[in-house]
Design a protein that fits this description.
373 residues, alpha+beta, HIT family, subunit A, three-stranded mixed β-sheet, 11 helices, 15 strands, 31% helix, binds zinc ion
Length: 373
C-alpha cells in the first residue's frame, strides 16, 4: 500500500480530537499526533503490535545505575528486540523489504511538511508516544539535505524531542527517518537540561566552545559519552553552524580506522549502495516555544555496538547504542544481559567508551569547532 493511503483523513482526525481532551484544532501537530496515537492504541482500530508492546513496557523492569557518578536508567524491554538485533548496516545484511515503504495494514500516519514526511507510532516503544517520522519516499539515511526539515518538524512538534540516528550510529532502517519522543522522558535529556539551567549533576559540567550573542556551543564533560550542545534563538544560526559541524565531523572521522569491532570510516555500505560519507552521530533537537530557542544535542560516535556484542555466548551482551542510549537509557531485551548490566556499572561505562568518539578524535573535533566564526 502506498504511504499516501496511510494518512488519516481530516475528518478522522477531527473525530479523534473530539474524543480526546485536546481542542479540535487540526493545525496543531502536537494535538494531531496525540489523535494518531489514540487511534493506533485503540484495541478496535489500532495496531496490535504497538498495543502489545505498550503492555510490555508498563511492567518491564528498570533500574537506575550510578556509573562513574552519572546516573543512567537500565531497562529490560523485549519491545525493543527488533531494533536491538537489527543488522541492516552490518557486514553482509540479508536483503529485506523496506518496512517504511511497506507499512503494515493497521499502521496509520499523519503527513507533515506538505506530506514530505509521515508521522507514525514507533512500535519499538521505550515510552508511550515514541514516533517514527519517515520520508514518504525511499531515500538513504543521510542527514545532508534534511537538517532544515528537522528544524521545521521540531518547531511544529513542540511537545516532542526530535531524534536522528546516523546510518552507522544506530539507525535500524536505510529509509530516511527521524524519531520523536515526548520531551523530558529520558534521563540524559533531563540531566543536560539541568546542567543548562545551572544545576549540578555530580561530576558533570559544561565547557563553552563558542559563546556569541546568537549562538552558544558547549561540551558536556565527564558525562560518560562525548556530548556537544548547541543553543540558539535563530534557525539560520543553527543551520549555518551545523553545516560547518557536519563537515568537521566527517573530516575527523576519516581517522576511524583499525578500531577493534568498529567499521573503518568511508567503507562501502552495502545496504545503501554507497560509501560512507557522514560522520557518525546521534542527535536530539527540541524547540522551546516559551523562550523561542532551539536545543540541539549531538553525540559524536565511533560505532553503535560495544565490543562485548561480538564476544561468544557467556560474555556476549546484546546492546545497540543509538539516541536513547546516548540519552542515558540503556535498553536490553534479555534478562541475563539486564542482570549483568545492573550489577556491573563498569560494563555500562565500557559500552559508552566503546561507542563514543575516542578522545583524540574528539579533541580534534573541538579544535575545529572553536575555529567557527
Ligand atoms: Zn523504504
Amino acid at each position: 500500500m502506498a504511504t499516501s493511503d496511510k494518512f488519516l483523513t481530516a475528518e478522522e482526525l477531527r473525530r479523534l480530537l473530539e474524543k480526546s481532551h485536546y481542542p479540535p484544532d487540526t493545525r496543531d501537530y502536537n494535538h494531531l499526533t496525540e489523535a494518531l496515537l489514540l487511534q493506533q492504541e485503540n484495541s478496535k482500530t489500532g495496531w496490535l503490535r504497538l498495543i502489545k508492546n505498550l503492555q510490555i513496557i508498563k511492567n518491564c523492569p528498570r533500574q537506575k545505575v550510578n556509573v562513574n557518578s552519572v546516573e543512567v536508567l537500565t531497562m529490560l524491554n523485549p519491545a525493543r528486540k527488533q531494533s536491538l538485533t537489527s543488522t541492516t548496516f552490518e557486514k553482509n545484511p540479508s536483503p529485506k523489504k523496506c518496512f517504511l515503504c511497506n507499512l503494515e495494514e493497521e499502521q496509520k500516519g499523519i503527513g507533515i511538511l506538505n506530506n514530505k514526511y509521515i508521522i507514525l507510532a514507533n512500535p519499538g516503544v521505550t515510552f508511550r508516544g515514541d514516533l517514527t517520522i519517515a520520508s514518504t519516499k525511499h531515500e538513504n539515511q543521510i542527514l545532508k539535505g534534511h537538517f532544515k526539515d528537522m528544524i521545521e518538524i521540531a518547531k511544529l512538534l513542540t511537545n516532542f524531542s526530535i531524534f536522528y540516528n546516523g546510518a552507522m550510529a544506530g539507525a535500524s532502517s536505510t529509509h530516511f527517518h527521524f524519531q520523536g519522543s515526548y520531551k523530558n522522558r529520558l534521563i540524559g535529556e533531563l540531566q543536560i537540561l539541568k546542567l543548562l539551567k545551572g544545576g549540578k549533576i555530580n561530576g558533570s559540567y559544561l565547557t563553552a566552545l563558542i559563546d556569541t550573542s546568537s549562538l552558544k556551543v558547549l561540551s558536556v564533560e565527564r558525562f560518560l559519552r562525548k556530548t556537544i550542545v548547541i543553543i540558539t534563538h535563530k534557525a539560520e544560526s543553527l543551520i549555518s553552524f551545523f553545516e560547518k559541524f557536519y563537515e568537521c565531523i566527517a573530516e575527523v572521522s576519516k581517522d576511524i580506522r583499525n578500531f577493534r569491532h568498529a567499521p573503518d570510516f568511508g567503507s562501502y555500505i552495502k545496504s545503501m549502495g554507497i560509501k560512507e560519507t557522514e560522520g557518525r552521530m546521534n542527535i536530539m533537537l527540541r524547540y522551546e516555544p516559551g523562550g523561542e530557542y532551539f536545543i540541539c544535542v549531538v553525540f559524536p560516535k565511533l560505532t553503535n555496538r560495544p565490543t562485548f556484542y561480538f564476544e561468544n555466548d557467556a560474555n556476549k551482551i546484546i546492546l545497540g547504542f543509538a539516541i536513547k542510549e546516548s540519552l542515558g537509557t540503556i535498553i536490553t531485551f534479555r534478562k541475563s544481559d539486564y542482570k549483568k548490566l545492573i550489577n556491573n556499572p563498569s560494563l555500562i561505562k565500557k559500552a559508552y567508551t566503546d561507542t563514543t568518539l575516542p578522545d583524540e578524535l574528539f579533541q580534534r573535533l573541538i579544535e575545529k569547532i572553536k575555529e567557527y566564526k
